[in-house]
Design a protein that fits this description.
heterodimer, A: about 525 residues, mainly alpha, about 65% helix, B: about 290 residues, alpha+beta, Helix Hairpins, Immunoglobulin-like, 2 domains, five-stranded mixed β-sheet, 6 helices, 10 strands, elongated, disordered C terminus
């Protein structure tokens, strides 16, 4: 960050950082400090993990295609549900958002790069090792972790050699996330272009600022919880064992104090993305910008006081159940405000339906469905029926797949031409959209019925009364899984070349924000001269 | 394309004969056979319909915007970007709706937590992977595990079609028998890991933890057999520890209990010298 003034023609004599451009070959990636290179690595890593976790989901749905055990034994099935969740949460969704943050935050706030480029490198390069460690547990004595991604004791203490490995992997992932979050906060707080006050920041940046605080607040809590598991297992402590004065339910309290903010870590940046895309293709400013920011902040605050709604069946005092029910229901208010504001943005706009807009609208519908089932789950007496059934599986997949994942796809389709300088095949992207939207509903909607009819989650085999909807759900799963190969092809094709994208990319729309003032692809050091924001 | 359709059609056709033998395409939560389960079902339906109503309104506006304000129909967008009035309205109205939902939910919850005046108390202990029922003060206790037919069929590649098994995975060797119209209190605990005891027809589910005792109650008002499962992941055979409750008339229940008590002493003696399988055989003989 020392010298900034040199003109391109003089670069050779000065040995400046700015004009070298990327290093050649492997060094460019291994020693990357450039926010775009690191962002790209995060996104590629995330996409890889999306397919790894997706493969596990296919194994799960293949076994559940019909009653009886045909393909895997129950232990491996449990490993698959556990690993699918860990890989998708920590390997696919979170790194995708960090990748988007790396790419877009400097562009959106008019900065040359992230504030802490070397830490940025470290936070990315931890991840491949963390996941190598986690995935290698599939091949160790005793098999991969099979106690669910929540790792509730005492069951998780029965894990074999995978136990310390998976805990260390989680520590690594947590460290990586915390570093990423620190970087985001420092960048946003210190490197905004002159004139860009906090309430002029694009909503994607805003959502990430709040998300980053959530990450810093709760990742250490997760680390603490799994460390206590580790000492219970190896060092004779009894945090979670009644025999030594501990309590297995205490683990659940600690875990969900992390876990609930965690689910918002996976959805708030999605809110930011949708808030960027809908105004662009509605050709109308975002309705209620301030309210949108405050809604994100309130959701983030509420996320800290609702954790026990994940554990209504553990045996809580009546007053506790009441409090967590009411606090949870409150979340519907700011979430409702967001949905209403997005709708109001589209109302009386001038809409076109490019792939990012299609995914954003799809998000709007299906995230709302996930929100509705969330409200139902908050009603404690009814939750006694829903809890740990497929209804819950349907609920959180609705907010995570057509919610978070669709928002990530929307972001990719929105900014990919900006990143690569090429327009992708929009026809194919629309095909990808329709197939994904149809199959994701075939996949997850019947799971509501299964749960209500009484099918518990995390079971490899079931009574024949559940056979029909399980078969439908599995067919949806295979269709959805295969459809994602189209996405892979589109991205690969776009990265290799194609029709040149303009600076604004979406000239017909109303792209707003500093990222569209740069060339496509943007210069290596983004904004070398800070733009003025009025 | 046609070819693909043909394959899809063939695949669906291949599934149909198996599918035809299956039970109904169940969509909703059972109403159940207890006062609480009916109230819970009522709450569930109320919240569901409120959600459906809100969804219809919101989705209608979105769909209307998509159709009426597409660029070809509405080329010049409006320029408004906030309205304090509507924002206050759509913050306040949801709060009112939520309060309307919370009140009946709280009322039911208070009933659920009222454990007083129970007429029969049974301690239920979760094991990996079976349940143990202990009729406190009655001297009757037994294990309840997956029945043999289901157990044979559920083995990996057993070659046995689950459709040929009655109540596949939802039948046990010894059912949990309770009297009708009686407030039964269930004390839940575990001997190893966390389990959860769940009978959808009773509207009730609760976790069982080692070293702690949880309680729930139910009063079934219709004799019959009600089936559920362990609902908290408990390891390898989590899917294979069903809960089967048989609700009998009060007279039949007393007779059953007496037979159990008579056989109980004999069964205990046998169990001393042999494996606990023998105890179950004795119980089975008694039935």
């Amino acid at each position: 960050m020392s010298t900034v003034q040199t003109h391109a023609g003089h670069a050779d004599t000065h040995h400046d950082h700015e004009h070298h451009g990327p290093a050649k070959g492997l060094r460019r990636w291994l020693f990357a400090t450039n926010h775009k290179d690191i962002g790209t690595m995060y996104l590629v890593f995330s996409l890889t993990m999306f397919f790894v976790g997706g493969t596990m989901a296919m194994i799960i749905r293949a076994e559940l295609f019909q009653p009886g055990l045909q393909l895997v034994d129950p232990m491996f099935f449990n490993s698959m549900t556990t690993m699918h969740a860990l890989v998708m949460i920590f390997g696919a969704v979170m790194p995708a958002f960090v990748g988007l943050a790396n790419w877009m935050i400097p562009l959106q706030i008019g900065a040359p790069d992230m504030a802490l480029p070397r830490m940025n490198n470290l936070s990315f390069w931890i991840l491949p090792f963390a996941f190598l460690l986690l995935l290698s547990t599939l091949f160790v004595e005793g098999g991969a972790p099979a106690s669910g991604w929540t790792m509730y004791p005492p069951l998780s203490l029965q894990t074999g050699n995978a136990f310390p490995m998976s805990i260390f992997a989680i520590h690594l992932m947590g460290a990586s996330s915390i570093m990423g979050a620190i970087n985001v906060i420092v960048t946003i707080m210190n490197m905004r272009a002159p004139g860009m006050t906090l309430l002029k920041m694009p909503l994607f940046t805003w959502s990430w600022l709040i998300t980053a605080y959530l990450i810093i607040a709760v990742m250490p809590v997760l680390a603490g919880a799994v460390t206590m598991l580790l000492t219970d297992h190896f060092f004779g402590t009894t945090f979670f064992s009644a025999a030594g004065g501990g309590d297995p339910v205490m683990y659940q309290h600690i875990f969900w104090f992390f876990g609930h903010p965690e689910v918002y870590i996976m959805i708030l940046p999605a809110f930011g993305i949708v808030s960027e895309i809908i105004p662009t293709f509605s050709r109308k400013r975002l309705f209620g910008y301030d309210a949108m920011v405050y809604a994100i902040a309130s959701i983030a605050f509420l996320s800290f006081i609702v954790w026990a709604h994940h554990m209504f069946t553990v045996g809580m005092p009546l007053a506790g159940q009441m409090f967590f029910m009411l606090a949870t229901m409150l979340i519907a208010v700011p979430t409702g405000v967001k949905v209403f504001n997005w709708t109001a943005t589209m109302y009386k706009g001038s809409l076109t339906f490019e792939p990012p807009m299609l995914f954003a609208i799809s998000f709007l519908f299906m995230f709302s469905i996930g929100g509705f089932s969330g409200l139902m789950l908050a009603i404690v007496p009814a939750d006694f029926q829903y809890h740990d059934s497929y209804f819950v599986v349907a609920h959180f997949h609705y907010v995570l797949v057509p919610g978070a994942v669709f928002a990530i796809m929307a972001a990719a389709y929105f900014w990919l031409p900006k990143w690569t300088g090429h327009m992708y095949n929009q026809k194919l992207a629309k095909a990808h959209f329709w197939l994904s939207t149809i199959f994701v509903n075939v996949l997850f909607f019947p799971q509501h019925f299964l749960g209500l009819a009484g099918m518990p989650r995390r079971i490899p085999d079931y009574n024949t009364q559940f056979a029909d909807w399980n078969m439908v759900s599995s067919i949806g799963a295979f269709g959805f899984g295969l459809s994602q190969l189209i996405f892979l092809y589109i991205v690969w094709q776009c990265a290799r070349g194609g029709v040149k994208a303009t600076d604004k990319v979406w000239d017909g729309g109303m792209p707003h924000g500093l990222e569209w003032t740069l060339s496509s692809p943007p210069p290596y050091h983004s904004f070398e001269v800070a733009p003025e924001v009025k | 394309m046609l070819k693909i359709l043909k394959y899809v059609a063939a695949a669906i056709a291949a599934c149909v004969p198996a599918g035809a033998a299956f039970a109904a395409w169940e969509l909703n939560m059972p109403v159940g056979v207890t006062e609480l389960s009916r109230e819970i079902h009522g709450l569930h339906m109320m919240v569901l319909w409120v959600c459906v109503l809100i969804a219809v309104v919101v989705f209608a506006v979105i769909i209307y915007s998509i159709i009426a304000f597409r660029r070809s129909k509405h080329p010049v967008p409006a320029t408004f970007d906030h309205s304090t009035k509507v924002e206050v309205i759509w913050t306040v109205i949801p709060i009112a709706i939520l309060v309307g939902m919370a009140i009946p939910a709280a009322e039911t919850l208070i009933k659920i937590e009222d454990m007083r005046d129970s007429e029969l108390t049974v301690k239920v202990t979760g094991y990996q992977w079976q349940w143990h029922y202990d009729y406190l003060d009655e001297g009757v206790s037994f294990f309840s595990r997956l029945d043999r037919d289901s157990d044979a069929a559920r083995q990996l590649n057993s070659g046995i079609d689950p459709n040929t098994i009655d109540n596949y995975l939802l039948e046990v060797d010894n059912r949990f028998v309770v009297p009708v119209d009686t407030k039964v209190r269930v004390l839940l605990t575990s001997s190893d890991v966390a389990h959860a005891w769940w009978v959808p027809e009773f509207g009730m589910k609760k976790d069982a933890y080692p070293g702690f005792v949880n309680e729930i109650w139910f009063r079934a008002d219709k004799p019959g057999v009600y089936r559920g499962q362990c609902a908290e992941l408990c390891g390898y055979d989590h899917a294979f520890m069903p809960v089967v409750v048989e609700v009998k008339s009060k007279e039949e229940f007393s007779a059953w209990l007496q037979a159990q008590q008579a056989n109980g002493t004999e069964a205990a003696q046998v169990a001393d010298s042999q494996a606990d399988n023998a105890a179950e055989a004795a119980v089975a003989r008694a039935e």
